[in-house]
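Q: what sequence does this backbone want?
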């Protein structure tokens, strides 16, 4: 069976551990586990030198994604987030081919022309993710956004976070059917609702893997899928390699094309 590329979001190792060791520490581990991509986390950066991380990742055969908590659209501003330009530059410094941000407060008054101008001649792709908020974690705003993007033929794609839809009681399967054609990168995590009402990310069990198999069939075959759930244990290499192997085999067949 053909293996699909797997990415490791470094947040999976826990914020404290990642900040303690620095993100460069995990590059050999991610590569040895069989992943083909590493996802830098802007919110976990400490004293890392971007050029060193970029070189090390390349030497280990890893592509890079840069994840930022930045919201692309703000409610009070028609143009894209003023920090987007600097974030794009930071992502390039880390050797990333893709920058992942949240959608934010997209409405019809937001100016896609200014975004198009900003993205001209950019050497990396901008991916817009569904987060856990009411304004950025529901299906309908993404349908409106990608309809507007298509009308202007802009090179924007989506990061599809499987677990995040649950924060707004959205169906991940409906989202995959409606938005799958726009997806370029998939964040995978199972979600558990605790007794105190808080949702937390967990590694997948058999039911989640079966669901993810169905979701991936609505997207491009062989799409990169990322671990974004806890990777913990005495042997992090073994734990990581096991999860890479699980995700690499998912989504090998296709269903009907996704629609909008």
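A:
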């Amino acid at each position: 069976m053909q293996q699909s590329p797997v990415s490791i979001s470094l947040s999976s190792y826990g914020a404290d551990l990642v900040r303690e060791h620095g993100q460069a520490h995990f590059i050999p581990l991610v590569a040895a586990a069989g992943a083909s991509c590493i996802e830098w986390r802007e919110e976990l950066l400490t004293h890392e030198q971007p050029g060193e991380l970029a070189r090390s990742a390349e030497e280990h055969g890893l592509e890079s994604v840069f994840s930022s908590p930045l919201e692309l659209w703000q409610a009070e501003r028609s143009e894209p987030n003023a920090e987007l330009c600097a974030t794009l530059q930071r992502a390039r410094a880390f050797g990333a081919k893709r920058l992942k941000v949240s959608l934010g407060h997209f409405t019809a008054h937001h100016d896609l022309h200014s975004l198009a101008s900003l993205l001209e001649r950019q050497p990396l792709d901008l991916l817009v993710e569904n987060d856990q908020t009411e304004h950025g974690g529901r299906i309908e705003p993404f349908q409106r956004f990608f309809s507007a993007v298509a009308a202007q033929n802009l090179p924007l794609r989506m990061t599809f976070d499987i677990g995040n839809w649950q924060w707004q009681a959205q169906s991940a399967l409906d989202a995959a059917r409606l938005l799958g054609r726009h997806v370029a990168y998939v964040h995978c995590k199972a979600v558990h609702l605790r007794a105190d009402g808080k949702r937390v990310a967990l590694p997948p069990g058999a039911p989640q893997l079966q669901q993810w198999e169905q979701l991936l069939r609505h997207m491009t075959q062989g799409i990169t899928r990322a671990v974004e759930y806890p990777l913990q244990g005495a042997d992090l290499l073994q734990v990581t390699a096991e999860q890479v192997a699980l995700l690499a085999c998912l989504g090998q067949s296709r269903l009907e094309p996704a629609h909008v």
